[in-house]
Design goal:
By secondary structure, this protein is mainly alpha-helical. It contains seven helices and five strands. The protein has a domain of 131 residues: NADH Oxidase (3-Layer(aba) Sandwich), CATH 3.40.109.10. The structure holds flavin mononucleotide (FMN).
């Protein structure tokens, strides 16, 4: 495993931008692809429920999905079914019991966390990326054959290597200054 110096993270984020064109001749190596997918697989999510497949996300959080998650907790961490029972009941009540529109929004939020992980992992691997939210999810689902199923699309992300003439690669970053975005609690607030 590669050790990453603290400065590497900031360097990677400074190098990163949303590439609008990609170099068709450059392919992501198998090793980088594997590392990237593993980082994505390890993305955090609320209660660790991972309501996604990396083509689309779940529309709702079903009791079945929660039950499978509990089975994984039992198998991978050796927790007994009895010990998990109240946690499982709470999840089924609170997560699966929410109104459908809140489940939809909640799962969509989890996908955005994975999107952040994907952007970070790509930057560290010097892979260029462009998140894409500007599409019609209904049409996108149709193209992917997801319409009417358990999954739907929230956001896409294109990967590759920046095109030589990508206009956006020459633009300076527009991140706001530290004193504009960080608020020290107890120091006067906003
Ligand atoms: C959630 C999200 C959705 C985005 N959707 C699009 C999109 O639909 N089309 C596009 O060209 N860029 C999209 N972007 C890229 C942003 O426009 C870009 O990240 C932003 O302008 C800041 O530029 P930078 O990432 O190059 O610093 C999206 C970025 C994020 C984080």
């Amino acid at each position: 495993m590669t050790d990453i110096a603290a400065s590497t993270v900031v360097e990677a984020m400074n190098r990163r931008y949303a590439a609008k064109t990609f170099d068709r001749t450059k392919k992501i190596s198998d090793a980088d692809r594997t590392e990237f997918l593993e980082a994505l697989r390890l993305s955090p999510s609320s209660y660790g429920l991972q309501p996604w497949k990396f083509i689309a996300r779940r529309r709702s959080t079903t009791s079945d999905h929660i039950t499978r998650h509990m089975e994984m907790l039992q198998q991978e961490r050796g927790v007994s079914a009895e010990a998990l029972q109240s946690f499982k009941n709470m999840l089924i009540r609170s997560a699966a019991g929410r109104p459908p529109e809140l489940q939809d929004a909640w799962n969509s939020n989890q996908t955005d966390v994975a999107l952040g992980v994907a952007a970070m992992a790509a930057a560290l691997l010097k892979i260029d990326a462009c998140p894409v939210e500007g599409f019609d999810p209904v049409k996108f689902d149709d193209v992917l054959g997801l319409s009417g199923g358990d999954f739907t699309t929230t956001v896409a992300i294109a990967f590759g290597y920046r095109g030589e003439h990508d206009l956006f690669s020459s633009f300076p970053p527009l991140s706001r200054a530290a004193d504009d975005v960080f608020v020290e609690l107890g120091a006067g607030g906003l």
